[in-house]
Amino acid sequence: MGGSRRRLLRPRPPAASQLGRAWLESFLHYAAAECHLAENTVAAYHRDLRHFFQWLEGRAVVGLSIRDLADYAGWLHGRKLAPASLARHLVSLKVFFRYLQLEGALQENLAELLGSQKLWQRVPKILSPEQIDRLLEGPRGGDPFWRRDRAMLELLYATGCRASELSHLRLCDVHLEETYCVCRGKGNKERVVPLGRRAVEAVVAYREHERPVLAARAPEEPPWVLLSCRGRRLRRERIWEQLKFYASRIGAPPEASPHTLRHSFATHLLAGGADLRQVQAMLGHASIATTQVYTHVDTSRLKAVHHKFHPRA
């Protein structure tokens, strides 16, 4: 009887779903604290892996077969995800399983056997130089904080920054007299990007006329360049919203975004004769293969090179 009673009182092992989610929280902490991955990257892993645990429905992570994981890929496909989103979900799963293998929870990473769907390499959408000019002049007197928005657009196009990078750009990162700024990209990697005359003028006008008003609304002096109406850091979501507003004003395509300016920045540099390695450095790409997609955009330049150097052009 006593032995039976002891067995009844023995604590139960944690449920498979609880253990799995504990591994997930541990993985996210590892990615942020030890791997120093960008906040947006960690958030993307979290979103993708939430879908994985939704598919698991309480089953244990440990013990899944390659057939089970293939079923997960099929489940994702059934959710009508875009090819890029489907591929990203599988990459997130592979990274998570690598962590479990590192921690000794898995003997082998079967997720590595999952083939990623081959993606068509899509040419990024860009704006023409004429459209860029109209967009950058979109903010005008009468708009709330139009000088801030003009500085925001000028900096996006002048530096090729991502919206999140511009959101976190600090005053100490911008060197107007030397005409350059320091951008911090994925993994907190720094890169130096030159600033053109118009970008410098736009930032100077904003810092002289509007930023002091916005900064006075914060409890203490904010370090960021771009401030919200409450004197806080201008969030990347707000940068997207403002760009969409001005793009609509000038009749730009509705899919225009901060990344459109980043694509335009790279494409226009290459069209002007910039070296691919230099563009890679300014964009902060780890691999030049990522930058090479922009060489497919400006076909007029390729035709000119072919006509000049090919003996039968």
Descriptive notes:
The protein is mainly alpha-helical and 313 residues long. The chain has two domains: 12-113, Tyrosine recombinase, N-terminal domain (DNA polymerase, domain 1); 129-259, Intergrase catalytic core (hpI Integrase, Chain A, Orthogonal Bundle), CATH 1.10.443. Helices cover 56% and strands 4% of the residues. It has helices at 2-9, 16-34, 39-56, 66-78, 83-102, 129-136, 146-159, 163-167, 197-209, 211-215, 236-250, 258-271, 276-283, 288-291, 299-309, and strands spanning 174-175, 180-184, 190-194. Helix 3 packs across helix 5 (83-102) and helix 7 (146-159) packs antiparallel against helix 9. It is globular, with a radius of gyration of 25 Å.
In short:
This protein has 313 residues and is mainly α. The chain has two domains: 12-113, Tyrosine recombinase, N-terminal domain (DNA polymerase, domain 1, Orthogonal Bundle), CATH 1.10.150; 129-259, hpI Integrase, Chain A (Orthogonal Bundle).
Q: Keyphrases for this structure?
A:
DNA polymerase, domain 1, single chain, three-stranded antiparallel beta sheet, hpI Integrase, Chain A, globular, 15 helices
Based on CA inertia axes, which overall geometry fits? globular
Percentage of residues in strands: under 5%
- The stretches of 5 or more residues where confidence is low (pLDDT under 50) are 1-14
Mean pLDDT, all residues: 85
Q: Helical amount among residues, as a percent range?
A: 55-70%
CATH topology label of the largest domain: hpI Integrase, Chain A
CATH homologous superfamily of the largest domain - what is it?
Intergrase catalytic core
DSSP, total strands? 3
Q: What does the main sheet amount to?
A: 3 strands, antiparallel
**Architecture of the largest domain, according to CATH?**
Orthogonal Bundle
Supply the helix-strand structural class: mainly alpha
SSE pattern, N- to C-terminal: HHHHHHHHEEEHHHHHHH
